[in-house]
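Notebook, bench 3.
Goal today: get a predicted structure for KOW domain-containing protein from Citrus clementina so we can plan the truncation constructs. The sequence was checked against the plasmid map this morning, with no discrepancies at the termini. Length recorded as 159 residues. Pasting the sequence as submitted so the record is complete.
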Amino acid sequence: MGWKAAEKLIRHWKILRGDNVMIIRGKDKGETGAIKRVIRSQNRVIVEGKNLVKKHIKGGEGHEGGIFTVEAPIHASNVQVLDPVTGKPCKVGTKYLEDGTKVRVARGIGASGSIIPRPEILKIRTTPRPTVAGPKDTPVDLVMEKTYDAKSGKGMPDL
């Protein structure tokens, strides 16, 4: 990617994975769907079941070839988030509540001004990783072992 293309990347994304959006331009204009994937390096999003194209895939080891129907990316400017109250496409703004939390708000002509909730799919990612020790992890008893005592000087190297 050249420096000109990098200048045009969206810095503050208002569309998130899992948002309900309406396609406002292109062959699927007027249709709604959920965002499946956000490709920030290209300013594009993939909407579930929309912008379908035929892809010719050559067969190889472990997979068959053929003609498959896949979802192609759409430019982020060609989709708009749906207002949760009216169900119409709207712009997205941000607002801080009294308790200090930052929320997304429906903006624009005919928008309700209601809060757009964060998609549930994003909350799933915040679950902690499993705490099962792997083969390269240091055992807990070795980590907790005291190897230096400041009073007696035990553990100091002989210099």
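The chain has a mean pLDDT of 89. The first strand starts at residue 20 and ends at 23.
Flagging this for group meeting.
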